[in-house]
Amino acid sequence: MHIPDGMLSTPVVAVTGVSSAGFVGYAVSWVRTRLTQQRTVLMAVMAALIFALQMLNFPVAGGTSGHFAGGAVAAIVLGTWPAVIVMTTVLVVQALLFADGGVLALGANILNMAVIAPLVGSALWMIARAMSRKRSVRVAGAFSAGWAAAVVAALAAAAEIWLSGNARFGLIMGAMGVWHAVIGIGEGLITAGLVAYLLAVRPDLLDSSEGAERSSVTAVIVSLGVLGVAAAGLSFLASAKPDALEFVTSGQGAGGAGAAERLLRSPLPDYLLPGVNNHTIAGVLAGIVGLVVTGALVWMGISSLRHRRPDSPS
Questions:
Q1: Do residues 126 and 143 lie in contact, with contact meaning Cβ atoms separated by under 8 Å?
Q2: Who contacts 201 (Cβ-Cβ below 8 Å, separation ≥6)?
């Protein structure tokens, strides 16, 4: 659901940009005084994993595809505000390095996928936790969180396109809602699967945002890192069909897509490494580059914040 440049009006770009900056600024201030080194590494690995999993588009129906977004699982594992940082980094890397999502639309994409999705996912996860400590209830809650986060974020994107005058309200809201209700099933299943794994091996990680500080999470970090590398290595299996937003805006009456030239030339457009003739190898290598860059940016950024944080009051 990455909105490209040309789909949003100047007022919508401005409002979503300012709103996103405010949320991200608060998230930065929150993590600055609360995260340990272990949590920083876990955030970096989760960012790399989510980037890699987002590359695996899966066919849905009617000539379209969907992909995992990750906002809900990031909020469940890391906490809401660390998730905002992780998802923002993923989206910035995608927009600037891979031409996935517009540069002018980056504020809107951050608001939808890095703010709204984690907030929705976190709220439903907290409800599930409050209802019961049973693993089955919590896994079901994780599924609901993933599904709802995908649908609400998609509807937010649809509303922004409608407010920009580039689609009829009923058409864009209905189409995006229906398609992402289906895509959300995949989002929910992946979210539930990752949560079920963590409930089996380290349930304390999911009890509070500070859970990882109580003991080593090296094994979890390694396993999630291996999963991320594997996902990047399998990126050549991703569906080539357009995602739901592309399908809706190009084939069902929404205008404006592609109306603006990109402000920056992306070095790895379409997730392909330039100079590599084999399309499959070029895609896998680009995915690995993106995975490493995303994880490294999160680790370096949060580590820098931690080193510059004010002394705790005595």
A1: no
A2: 219, 220, 223
What pTM value is reported for the model? 0.89
Cα–Cα distance for residue pair 2/154, rounded to 1 Å: 9
Instruction: Convert the pLDDT of each residue in 158-184 to its tens digit.
Output: 999 999 998 899 988 998 898 899 999
**Maximum distance among all Cα pairs of the chain, rounded to whole angstroms:** 61
16 Cβ partners below 8 Å, 6+ apart? 8, 107, 108, 110, 111, 160
How many other C-beta atoms are found inside a 10 Å radius of the C-beta of residue 227?
17
Distance, in Å, from the CA atom of 175 to the CA atom of 252, rounded to the nearest integer, reads: 9
All structural domains of the chain, each given as residue ranges with its CATH number in brackets, are: 40-93+106-259+282-307 (1.10.1760.20)
List, as own/partner pairs, every contact residues 197-205 make where C-beta atoms lie below 8 angstroms and the sequence separation is at least 24, other chains included: 197/223, 198/77, 199/135, 199/138, 199/139, 205/77
Identity of the amino acid at 294: T
Q: Which residue intervals of 164-310 are DSSP H helices?
A: 169-201, 218-233, 244-251, 279-307
Residue holding tokens 């069909």?
A: 241
pLDDT surpasses 60 at 129: yes
For residues 236 and 55, what is the distance between their CA atoms, to the nearest angstrom?
9
Predicted confidence at residue 250, as pLDDT, reads 67
Tell me the C-alpha distance between 10 and 273, whole Å. 33
Give 166: exposed, middle or buried? Use CB within 10 Å, 0-12, 13-18, 19+.
Answer: buried
- Output the CA–CA distances (angstroms, integers) from residue 250 to 16, 160, 161, 258, in the order listed: 23, 16, 13, 10
SS3 state at 58: strand
Phi, psi dihedrals of residue 128, rounded to the nearest 5°: -60, -40
End-to-end CA distance of the chain: give it in Å, rounded: 46
